[in-house]
Every structure is written in C-alpha cells, then in structure tokens.
Write a structure and sequence with these properties.
The protein is an alpha/beta fold. It contains nine helices and seven strands, in the order βαβαβαβαββααβααα.
Length: 243
C-alpha cells in the first residue's frame, strides 16, 4: 500500500502525523511525504538560507521516519495565489498512484494549509481517498478515525527535533498534549493517538492502516466507512466503548 502525504511546510508532516507515518511504515506500507512550500518565511533568517536549511531538516526527519520525500518548493505563504500548485500536485499524484492521500483540513488556521487541502481534493479526484489531518491542538475538528501511535511517539519526537530552526521543543510538547487528548478520547489514558477525518470514498479498506488496534475497535471500522459515505462523522473508538 502506498500512502502519500501533502503538507504545506517542511515540519508539518512530522508535527501533525509523524506517529502515523512511522506506524504505517512498520506495517510495510510505502509512505511519501510531499512538502508544498520551501518554508522560507518560517523564521527571522535570510529567506534563501532558511529555505536551504529547512530542506536539509526535512530530509533528516524523513530519514528518521523512513519515508520518501518530495519537496515542491513553492514560495512560502503564497500557495493560495498559486495557479500552478494544483496542477503540479495532480501530476505528482498521477505519477505516484497512491492508495491514500493525507492532507491538511479545509478549515485549518493557516492559509497555506487550506490551499493544500483544496489542492489535495483536486489532485485526488477519483484517484484516491483523502484523510484530513488533525489541525494544531484540534481546533474546530471532528475526527472519525484515530491511529494509536503510542509505540511510535518517541520516533515522532525525534523527527520533530530535526527541525532545529523552528523551536522544535515547543512542537514536541504540543504533540504530547494533543496526542494524550486524542488517546483519551479512545478510552486509552496515558497513550498517544493521532486523529483524522475521512472524506467519503467508495469502499476504502481503512482497517489496514490502523496499528495497533484492539479487536473491539477494529470491528467498528466498517460502520465508520458506511457513515463516511453518508457524510456522518462518527468518533470511531468512543462509540464502541460507550455501548
């Protein structure tokens, strides 16, 4: 199985879903991270030098997670004005032929993130289903799919810490808080989870992406697929626990 992530900035994949990337790789799935912008506006540095530095940091983080990396290098902060981005992303999706696309949510706080979300829908078309990734601290986001990343939180943190130019310790701590919260939603106190919202798509066998899942949770995934087709969000784990 090939899973492709499309994110706006060089550290986004690691912060938002680095644990899931590590989990999917442990299951033998191929994972490709596509970074839309060069990240040149992400700090008080010379933009050209910062872009080069962030490219190096992203390469190191992808190596930690054992993921493929594609850097599209669009100007940071300008995706919403780019007429080329959607067509370039579509070309990459056609070339890669992923079984699943993961992208920012359409209501994310950052304009570049929202542009990635819109571009991902255009690129996916009927080629692949899409998962929206949980925004920073889960603001205004209703997940219907969770991944238990407890065994992979350390690897996620190592990937985040590769981004030395971005105060990575701050994002490590935020990922811990959010990961504990999402795990608690699933009835697993003290663990870590990452949350997603599934876009309706025909018969996605999403259960193969979950690792590790207790059996009582995995049985509910087929219902989540049916509800997603009906555009009815369901918190996959919590509904089963409270029955």
């Amino acid at each position: 199985m090939h899973i492709a992530l499309i994110v706006a900035h060089p550290d986004d994949a690691d912060i938002y879903c680095g644990g899931s990337v590590a989990a999917w790789r442990s299951m033998g799935s191929e994972v490709t991270i596509m970074i839309a912008t060069d990240g040149a506006r992400g700090g008080n540095f010379d933009p050209e030098k910062l872009a080069q530095l962030r490219a190096t940091e992203a390469t190191a983080a992808a190596e930690v997670l054992d993921a493929n990396l594609i850097q599209l290098n669009f100007p940071d902060g300008e995706l919403a004005q780019s007429e080329e981005f959607a067509s370039r992303l579509t070309a990459e999706v056609v070339r890669l032929k992923p079984d699943l696309l993961v992208a920012h949510a359409p209501n994310d706080y950052h304009a570049d993130h929202r542009a990635v979300s819109a571009g991902a829908l255009i690129a996916a078309s009927f080629r692949a289903p899409v998962l929206w990734v949980d925004p920073m601290m889960g603001n205004d986001f209703l997940p219907n799919y969770y991944v238990d990343i407890t065994p992979f939180q350390d690897l996620k943190e190592r990937a985040i810490l590769c981004h030395n130019s971005q105060r990575p310790e701050h994002f490590v701590e935020m990922s811990r808080v959010q990961g504990h919260f999402r795990s608690a939603q699933c009835g697993q106190l003290g663990g870590f989870a990452e949350a997603f919202a599934m876009i309706p798509f025909t018969h996605l066998q999403i259960s193969v992406l979950c690792f590790p899942l207790p059996l009582r949770f995995s049985r509910l995934l087929s219902k989540a697929l049916a509800d997603a087709d009906a555009q009815k969000p369901v918190p996959v784990f919590l509904e089963k626990i409270h029955r």
